[in-house]
């Protein structure tokens, strides 16, 4: 059995990890930490876990994390980098669901996250946990940087086009929409029901922290610098991301076949038939990215539609997928769920 610890178990990604891991046949949950809620049974906070989980929250110091095989950090940015070195030195593998190890350029990370990085040497070692491009490296990693939610949807949508050199890389646009759970479980005015319901708005147009993460990945796929614009929006959904991606076609290529062939062996990417329009509700609760590719009026613009559940393929599900790869388990272990519809 894989002995698992979770640091920061009181947020939405934390409870989603618990939902998935309690059903994992090879996992023994050893600790879920929260300084504020130490001693409280986890199921008292999250009643969906009643009958599935008997653990109580504990402080990180009392949790015995150094005795785990793998520790997930479902914490705010800046927490994992303070504790990861000690865990790695104890032989524990680490999967960070925050952004501490995603961006390789430390100066860029510090610019966007407004803090000094505590362990820049570990950033160089960390493997970016997007299995569709880094599966082999993930398998041998000690430290995995789980991708962000927007970056997962956007990168998977652009990946085949950039690998094939099929589009003009100087002008790539991602118009993306997210449900309110992407903002976390903390109380903030903009995600109150009366603020977010029956409303739709763009935000962070001048610069979102996921922009450098996405741009880093796109430039790796393309093998050169890219021009990239990212505009996020808040929608009155609980779960879901819908990314509409635009690029100019630069090669004579069958785009539908390109996507189908690139993802033919990927269990968690579903390329829909030509002309399809994927919906966020079709992936709710499932660790899958659904993609459709369009070429409106047969012109020189390609439009890719990419949808995920931000808490599953965009966070906790992808983290469990990475754990399965790390421990040489079938990737779909505990992840073979059908999306919840309606």
TrEMBL record:
<comment type="pathway">
    <text>Amino-acid biosynthesis; L-arginine biosynthesis; N(2)-acetyl-L-ornithine from L-glutamate: step 3/4.</text>
</comment>
<keyword id="KW-0028">Amino-acid biosynthesis</keyword>
<dbReference type="GO" id="GO:0003942">
    <property type="term" value="F:N-acetyl-gamma-glutamyl-phosphate reductase activity"/>
</dbReference>
<keyword id="KW-0521">NADP</keyword>
<feature type="domain" description="Semialdehyde dehydrogenase NAD-binding">
    <location>
        <begin position="3"/>
        <end position="141"/>
    </location>
</feature>
<dbReference type="Pfam" id="PF22698">
    <property type="entry name" value="Semialdhyde_dhC_1"/>
</dbReference>
<dbReference type="InterPro" id="IPR023013">
    <property type="entry name" value="AGPR_AS"/>
</dbReference>
<dbReference type="InterPro" id="IPR000706">
    <property type="entry name" value="AGPR_type-1"/>
</dbReference>
<keyword id="KW-0963">Cytoplasm</keyword>
<feature type="active site">
    <location>
        <position position="149"/>
    </location>
</feature>
<dbReference type="InterPro" id="IPR000534">
    <property type="entry name" value="Semialdehyde_DH_NAD-bd"/>
</dbReference>
<dbReference type="GO" id="GO:0005737">
    <property type="term" value="C:cytoplasm"/>
</dbReference>
<dbReference type="GO" id="GO:0006526">
    <property type="term" value="P:L-arginine biosynthetic process"/>
</dbReference>
<dbReference type="Pfam" id="PF01118">
    <property type="entry name" value="Semialdhyde_dh"/>
</dbReference>
<keyword id="KW-0055">Arginine biosynthesis</keyword>
<dbReference type="GO" id="GO:0070401">
    <property type="term" value="F:NADP+ binding"/>
</dbReference>
<protein>
    <recommendedName>
        <fullName>N-acetyl-gamma-glutamyl-phosphate reductase</fullName>
        <ecNumber>1.2.1.38</ecNumber>
    </recommendedName>
</protein>
<dbReference type="InterPro" id="IPR058924">
    <property type="entry name" value="AGPR_dimerisation_dom"/>
</dbReference>
<dbReference type="GO" id="GO:0051287">
    <property type="term" value="F:NAD binding"/>
</dbReference>
<comment type="similarity">
    <text>Belongs to the NAGSA dehydrogenase family. Type 1 subfamily.</text>
</comment>
<dbReference type="InterPro" id="IPR036291">
    <property type="entry name" value="NAD(P)-bd_dom_sf"/>
</dbReference>
<comment type="function">
    <text>Catalyzes the NADPH-dependent reduction of N-acetyl-5-glutamyl phosphate to yield N-acetyl-L-glutamate 5-semialdehyde.</text>
</comment>
<dbReference type="InterPro" id="IPR050085">
    <property type="entry name" value="AGPR"/>
</dbReference>
<keyword id="KW-0560">Oxidoreductase</keyword>
């Amino acid at each position: 059995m894989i002995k698992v610890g979770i640091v920061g178990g009181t947020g939405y990604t934390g409870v989603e990890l618990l939902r998935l891991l309690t059903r994992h046949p090879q996992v023994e949950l050893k600790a879920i930490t929260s300084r504020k809620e130490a001693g409280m049974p986890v199921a008292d906070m999250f009643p969906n876990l009643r009958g599935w989980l008997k653990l109580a929250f504990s402080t990180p110091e009392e949790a015995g994390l150094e005795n785990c095989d793998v520790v997930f950090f479902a914490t705010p940015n800046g927490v994992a980098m303070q504790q990861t070195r000690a865990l790695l030195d104890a032989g524990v593998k680490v999967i960070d669901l925050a952004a501490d190890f995603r961006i390789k350029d430390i100066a860029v990370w510090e610019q966007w996250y407004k803090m000094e990085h505590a362990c820049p040497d570990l950033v160089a070692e960390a493997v970016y946990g997007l299995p569709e491009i880094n599966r082999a490296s993930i398998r041998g990693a000690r430290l995995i940087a789980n991708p962000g939610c927007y970056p997962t949807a956007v990168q998977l949508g652009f990946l085949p086009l950039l690998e094939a050199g099929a589009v003009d890389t100087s002008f790539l646009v991602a118009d993306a929409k997210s449900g309110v759970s992407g903002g976390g479980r903390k109380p903030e005015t903009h995600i109150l029901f009366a603020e977010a319901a029956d409303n739709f708005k763009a935000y962070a147009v001048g610069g979102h922290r996921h922009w450098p993460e996405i741009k880093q990945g796109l430039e790796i796929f393309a093998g050169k610098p890219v021009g990239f614009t990212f505009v996020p929006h808040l929608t009155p959904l609980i779960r879901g991301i819908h990314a509409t991606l635009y690029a100019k076609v630069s090669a004579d290529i069958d785009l539908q076949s390109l996507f189908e062939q690139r993802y033919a062996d990927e269990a968690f990417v579903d390329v829909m038939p030509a002309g399809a329009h994927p919906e966020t509700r079709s992936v709710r609760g499932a660790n899958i990215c659904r993609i459709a590719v369009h070429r409106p009026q047969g012109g020189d613009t390609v439009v890719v539609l990419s949808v995920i559940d931000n808490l599953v393929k965009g966070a906790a599900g992808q983290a469990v997928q990475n754990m399965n790869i790390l421990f040489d388990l079938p990737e779909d272990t505990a992840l073979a769920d059908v999306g919840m519809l309606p």
